[in-house]
Write a structure and sequence with these properties.
Radius of gyration: 27 Å
Strand order of the largest sheet: 4-3-2-1-5
Largest sheet: 5 strands, antiparallel
Structural class: alpha+beta
Strand content: 5-15%
Order of helices and strands: HHHHEEEEHE
Helix content: 25-40%
Length: 217
């Protein structure tokens, strides 16, 4: 009597073929080619959002300052908002200090902050000048605040864009009613306000009228 032997099944092959590997590599290459150029834009968009949040926190500081001092800050430039910490209106902490300069700019590139701990940035108003932040503050010498809060068309603080743009395509500004406004380079160039390779200058020489009320000093 013949004994029937069941056929031996071969284990399923788990490895990829060369064609499958090449297909995966090609798909990854296509995705990389599509996504990598957009990474800088995504990073900048996140920094613009963080910058707007900084502006909102600065405005809250102005409200607290007005409540406790019965006036708005009267200094100009960086001192205009640095007084929030030097006066004790905002607690002098690392977190509070970092809100007074743009997240789109490396603090190590801000000359006045180099070699200083965050709690040393804005504690002493007498040593502060325009090199202590990548934000520009109100020029209260030439454009004093007659009241606070003020108009949504009245600028208080903005990216200084000095010597280049804080953000790739956008300048963020804090307005007198606590709102934030953005000035887009593409829109300004289309309107003929800026040339093809110009950055948006902030301060008395700015081509945007609202930003002329700021000081880099």
């Amino acid at each position: 009597m013949r004994t029937l032997v069941a056929p031996v099944r071969r284990a399923a092959r788990a490895a990829f073929t060369l064609i499958e590997l090449l297909a995966v590599i090609m798909i990854i290459g296509i995705l990389a080619a599509f996504l990598l150029p957009r990474i800088p834009e995504a990073v900048d968009a996140a920094e613009v959002t963080a910058c707007k949040q900084n502006m909102s926190e600065i405005y809250k500081g102005f409200v607290l300052f007005k409540t406790s001092k019965t006036r708005a800050p009267a200094e100009s430039g960086v001192k205009f908002f640095a007084e929030l910490i030097s006066s004790g209106t905002l607690e002098n902490t690392k977190s509070a200090a970092k809100k007074l300069t743009c997240p789109g700019v490396d603090p190590n590139a801000v000359i006045g902050l180099q070699g200083r701990a965050e709690t040393e940035w804005y504690g002493d108003l007498s040593v502060i000048d325009g090199s202590f932040s990548s934000y520009a503050g109100r020029n209260c010498k030439d454009f004093p605040l007659r009241k606070f809060p003020t108009s949504g068309k009245d600028v208080l603080v903005a990216d200084d864009n000095d010597p280049e743009m804080n953000h790739r395509h956008t300048t963020v500004a804090l307005m007198g009613d606590g709102s934030t406004e953005t000035f887009e380079l593409d829109d300004l160039r289309k309107a003929g306000v800026l040339g093809p390779d110009e950055i948006l200058v902030v301060g008395p020489e700015s081509p945007v009228e609202e930003l002329r009320k700021l000081s880099l000093d």
